[in-house]
Amino acid sequence: MFWKASKSHSTPAKVGLSNGQLKACGSKPNCVSSSADKNSKFYIAPFAADNIEAAWDNLNIMLPDMGFKMALNQDKYIHATAQTSLLKFVDDIEFHLDTANGLIHFRSQSRVGYSDMGANRKRIESIKNRLAQL
Fold first, then answer.
1. How many domains does the chain have?
2. Which end of the chain, N or C, is less surrounded by CB atoms within 10 Å?
3. How many beta carbons lie within 10 A of that of residue 1, not counting itself?
């Protein structure tokens, strides 16, 4: 277990944008993405708002307050990380601002292991709920 936890601290290759979208999840059930096919087990709905740029600004403020570490923050893309409390596994959380459609897209994936027991889906739902309250 310690080896897996230490392995999770290396930066993954599957983060970032590809053709203007967040990268695909892969085959392990430890990932959710709003860019996934709507009929797949990986799909989670993006966040929509009338003033999506204000929501994006709020996201930038609230992520550090929620304990996320900002790894990369560009104009319309954020890569943050979260660490599990018990074993200190690192998960990657990504956000992409789609101003044309008034959406914020999400992707959250565990770096190691097979199943996340729904942790990534719960994390994104929590972020969406908090954004909706602002």
1. 1
2. N
3. 9
